[in-house]
Amino acid sequence: MKNINSENDLELSPAELRQTFGRNLRELTKPYRSISGLCRELGINRTQFNRYLAGESFPRPEILAQICAFFEVDAQTLLGPFARRKKAQIGREHPFLDEFVGPKPDTVSEERFPSGFYRFSRRSFLDTDLVMNGLVYVFRRDGFAFIRGYASRSIMRDLALPTNSPIREFRGVLIPQEEGVHFTISHRNNIATVFNYLSRASALQQNVWVGFSARPERDNVIKRRVTRLVYEKINGSFSDVRAMAKSTGYVPLGEIPELHQRHLRLGTPFS
To answer: How many domains does the chain have?
Structure first.
């Protein structure tokens, strides 16, 4: 006879445990277009990872800890009623801030800011002769519009930060703003945070958004804290996205697309 745990859920048999773990792991991997690429980042054999996803196998303790650290979840979350826990966590906010601060489900529609890959450009906060050329992925989950990307290793080295994948990753959530959206993206443990605002460039350029990026830090006469920002939705194939990913990082002003140069208005000071 099965026992009852502290959350009034039935303890799972080994087979049920594998199935539950596989189902929750599949949920976590949904934003990833390539399971092979994900396995490389995790450092886990693709064949073995597929067995986890199918509920055919359960990872050893050290592999389980590796998976939990990568996805920023605890083992209890992966082995229990994941969907219910996610809903409770997402809905947790103080009533004092309700209707004032924070994201709300289903408030950023696909029409306002579609899901998919985006190429972005902004002038470097540190070197005015360079432009950051980056790539992000926007996707929907649980009614929210999330944004995710990875800083290039060269950028992390310039900032004297670790260059491993977990630290390079940044995430954010889109929030509706008048005529556009805003979002704060941050690396793990808030080691680097940037605020962004975007609105569509024009009715003729439906795949381009322009705005500004702001870096919250103390005043410094050497570093800039606010600069123009351009996002361009990539409508090509995944191979096009992979090709663009190879060129991310700081580049000279003349190496970004002419469209981005025009919207960044490089010869005009930001006001």
So the answer is: 2
